[in-house]
Model the fold of this input.
Amino acid sequence: MRNKKVLFTTQAAMIAALYVVLTMLANALGLANHAIQVRFSEALTILPYFTPAAIPGLTIGCVISNLLTGCMPLDVVFGSCATLLGAVGTYLLRKYKWAAPLPPIIANTIIVPFVLAYVYMAEGTIPYFMLTVGIGEVISCGVLGMILLSILEKYRHVIFKTEV
Done:
């Protein structure tokens, strides 16, 4: 029992760390924030398909990333909530491989535009931000995430083993 908790915690911590590193890379390239966001880290949002440890891992990784990239406090809260909702949705739909990227795409496309409009007072309309954020999420979660899922599926019993 204790070894399962250690494994869960270790997986969650590694996922959080990967999320932060990939977000910082995207941030250095100017892709992590603003109206059009292509965070490489968002490809990791398919990981709840493999392990429930990805849910806290992604959420904590998002909180840390948003703090490190200088996001406003409400962005940290609501952006991280979008990631949490997406991760839970992916876990709940884990029986359907093709559905893995849909919850994070939907959660971010609905929540992040309001953050951009009301927290950052960005110029543009909610529908415009939904379009731009949605495009970035489709690229990050839909394309990159599904490529990652296909690669990891071959090694799922090694990487995401549940027994220690």
About this structure: The mean pLDDT is 92. The helical segments are 2-28, 54-68, 73-92, 102-118, 126-153, 156-159.
